[in-house]
Backbone:
DNA sequence: AGCATTCCTG
DNA sequence: CAGGAATGCT
């Protein structure tokens, strides 16, 4: 929204206003200029608002969602079938498939809502499945539901598909909401009987297209619509007829099927072996009774569903479909058992087995090809043709069952039906594979853990391609410790602090610079990543020159190449201990002059870069300090504090804890009392200013800064010693 | 122009 | 904490 933008711009502009107190930081003198003082709005409090963003939506997988996931799979599996080639001799299942298609078309209203023939198209499959997710979820449960189709069917469906697509595109492009009764989503308009409200964006698009559409085209479009409606009605009648026909055939097939399996079951039972088939003889009987359904119930069974039942019977996994459907004692049951049917049924069973097997193989091939990135040899690696019963026996006994299920999780929202577990020889990701994303950034060893300096193993190979890294990667472990020191340009130093190694001329060596055990290594990280990875590789012929080369790189980056021969490894950069020292100094001085810094960091070879960095440090310190002050002042106001006198800064207070955590994280330095006083003054200044409403002034902090900058106290002399950290922290 | 400082961002 | 932008002083 424009208002938002303007507001943001305004905020930014006001924030951009400096709060420059104009402290001139020349030697020892502190002068305060007021003329140009400006202040800015503080936005520190905004950080509280981020909690609202932590509104994580927890995805809970309910059963219904699981079934949805299952249907997603099935949708995909159905679409995969479109890529399958026609199986030679696929007579029965082909017929089932064809009938299935027509039946779906007749049953699902969604199929007709475009007024176009979309049989066999992926869109239709999507519609059917998505619709069935609301109504009868079982319709799309099996990827084997339509495992094959004849070439004629494919051609016809493809043609219809193309026609449907073309017509639909025409509809969308030409006719979008020309008539109030014709929305661009015709199906919705027809179902709801009212045009869908359009978003402004959509209406904009429509207007654009409206202008380009002549009046005549609108009329012709309406004619087209009505014509297609008629076509649709006719098609619906035709489909109903087809459906009835198909249902008859289906019933016959079911009867034959059950008769066959009844006979084979009895045969198997005779030899005493409880084969998988025999185990389901009871279930068979149940299904036989189910074959006596009413027409309406039969319409809920598509051929794919029928095949699912067959699989379920064989593998003792009822495919969950029947349980949800109320069983009726059909009064029109017709169970014919004749010997001629028996022979015919056996042939039917064999054909069914082969069909199932072939379909399974094809589906699996397709699915695996789609899912597994690494292609595996087509039709290789599969066991010899098995009977469906052999193939489906597996699940509840298969030792690989659980791993297979786990493996399925690798497919995300796609779940492969259990029969596919038998593809244990297919190379798909399993539970032993890497399923979680590895962190791209290896967590650095904290220097809070003494002696755990980064080891070569912790380096991501892609992040540190420098020859140094690779060199060190082959160093013996005992050599690892000085590694970061070399990178940083630190001398290889004995723990006693005496300079050693190839730096005889180092008179500025300070032991504290070696005290890396506690400090964080941000600087080291930066240096190692910038100056080693991004710059010229070290010449392999000069393996011992890492340090000096690094130093030179660092120095040249600072634009100060003077006195290269006299470079101390310290002078090139500020160490983490320097930072620590600066933080401790902040307890005494908030506005140190550059000269003061030079005095207190005498072990540093100053140049513009170093000076700026040190000044920047203190600027950052102040920033944090004032942010905390304002935050706590506002918090006190919100808590009902009325007088600044109530505000105190004590060592057990939250404010002190925050400050101490920032400047004295290790808590190994005794914060001077004076700092508490200054902090309390600062806090009260903020409090009073806010209470007085001065914070409406963009430069309201200038007065506070002016006050605080005068409260600097003398930094103890011990800070001038390069060894001050040891002396301070170990007494 | 150079520098210091604040503010913002990552 | 550093980099960069903006700003203002000298």
Residues:
């Amino acid at each position: 929204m424009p208002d938002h933008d303007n507001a943001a711009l305004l905020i930014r502009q006001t924030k951009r206003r400096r709060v420059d107190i104009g402290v001139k930081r020349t030697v020892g003198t502190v002068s305060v200029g007021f003329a140009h003082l400006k202040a800015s709005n503080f936005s520190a409090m905004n950080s509280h608002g981020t909690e609202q963003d932590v509104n994580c939506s927890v995805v809970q997988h309910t059963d219904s969602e699981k079934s949805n996931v299952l249907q997603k799979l099935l949708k995909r599996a159905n679409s995969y079938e479109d890529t399958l080639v026609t199986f030679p001799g696929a007579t029965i299942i082909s017929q089932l498939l064809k009938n299935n298609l027509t039946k779906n078309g007749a049953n699902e209203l969604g199929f007709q809502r475009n007024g176009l023939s979309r049989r066999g198209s992926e869109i239709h499959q999507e519609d059917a499945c998505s619709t069935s997710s609301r109504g009868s979820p079982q319709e799309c449960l099996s990827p084997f539901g339509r495992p094959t189709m004849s070439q004629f069917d494919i051609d016809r469906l493809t043609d219809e598909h193309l026609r449907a697509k073309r017509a639909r595109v025409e509809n969308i492009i030409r006719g979008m909401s020309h008539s109030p009764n014709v929305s661009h989503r015709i199906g919705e308009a027809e179902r709801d009987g009212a045009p869908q409200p359009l978003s402004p964006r959509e209406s904009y698009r429509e207007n654009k297209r409206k202008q380009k559409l002549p009046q005549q085209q609108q009329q012709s479009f309406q004619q087209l619509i009505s014509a297609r409606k008629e076509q649709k009605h006719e098609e619906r009648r035709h489909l109903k007829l087809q459906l009835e026909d198909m249902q008859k055939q289906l019933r016959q097939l079911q009867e034959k099927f059950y008769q066959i399996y009844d006979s084979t079951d009895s045969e198997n039972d005779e030899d005493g072996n409880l084969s998988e088939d025999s185990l389901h003889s009871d279930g068979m009987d149940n299904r036989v009774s189910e074959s006596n359904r009413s027409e309406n119930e039969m319409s809920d069974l598509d051929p794919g569903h029928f095949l699912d039942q067959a699989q379920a019977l064989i593998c003792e996994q009822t495919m969950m479909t029947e349980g949800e459907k109320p069983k009726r004692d059909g009064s029109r049951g017709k169970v014919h058992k004749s010997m001629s049917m028996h022979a015919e049924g056996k042939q039917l069973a064999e054909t069914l087995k082969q069909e199932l097997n072939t379909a399974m193989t094809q589906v699996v091939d397709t699915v695996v090809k789609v899912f597994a990135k690494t292609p595996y040899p087509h039709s290789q690696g599969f066991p010899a043709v098995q009977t469906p019963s052999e193939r489906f026996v597996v699940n509840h006994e298969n030792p690989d069952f659980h791993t297979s299920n786990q493996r399925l999780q690798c497919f995300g929202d796609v779940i492969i039906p259990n029969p596919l577990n038998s593809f244990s020889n297919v190379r798909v990701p399993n539970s032993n594979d890497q399923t979680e994303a590895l962190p791209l950034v290896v967590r650095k060893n904290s220097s809070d853990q003494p002696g755990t300096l980064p080891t070569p193993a912790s380096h991501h190979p892609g992040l540190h391609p420098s020859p140094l890294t690779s060199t060190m990667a082959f160093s013996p472990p005992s050599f690892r410790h000085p590694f970061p020191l070399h990178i940083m340009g630190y001398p290889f130093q004995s723990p006693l602090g005496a300079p050693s190694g190839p730096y005889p001329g180092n008179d500025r060596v300070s032991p504290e610079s070696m005290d890396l055990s506690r400090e964080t290594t941000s600087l080291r990280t930066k240096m190692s990543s910038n100056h080693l990875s991004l710059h010229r590789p070290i010449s392999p012929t000069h393996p011992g020159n890492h340090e000096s080369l690094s130093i030179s790189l660092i120095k040249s980056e600072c634009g100060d190449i003077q006195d290269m021969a006299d470079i101390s490894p310290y002078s090139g950069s500020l160490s983490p201990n320097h930072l620590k020292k600066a933080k401790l100094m902040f307890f005494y001085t908030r506005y140190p002059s550059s000269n003061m810094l030079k005095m207190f960091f005498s072990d540093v070879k100053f140049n513009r870069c170093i000076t700026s960095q040190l000044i920047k440090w203190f600027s950052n310190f102040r920033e944090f300090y004032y942010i905390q002050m304002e935050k706590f002042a506002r918090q006190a106001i919100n808590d009902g504090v009325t007088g600044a006198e109530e505000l105190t800064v004590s060592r057990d207070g939250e404010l002190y804890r925050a400050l101490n955590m920032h400047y004295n994280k290790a808590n190994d330095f005794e914060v001077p009392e004076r700092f508490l006083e200054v902090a309390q003054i600062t806090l009260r200044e903020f409090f009073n200013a806010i209470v007085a409403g001065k914070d409406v002034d963009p430069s309201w902090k200038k007065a506070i800064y002016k006050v605080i900058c005068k409260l600097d106290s003398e930094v103890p002399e011990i800070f001038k010693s390069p060894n001050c950290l040891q002396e301070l922290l170990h007494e």
Observations:
- The two ends of chain A are 61 Å apart (CA to CA).
- Chain A has a mean pLDDT of 48.
- Residues 12, 15-25, 38, 40, 43, 594, 608, 612, 615-616, 619, 622-623 of chain A lie near DNA strand B (CB under 10 Å from a C1').
- The beta strands of chain A are 24-25, 30-31.
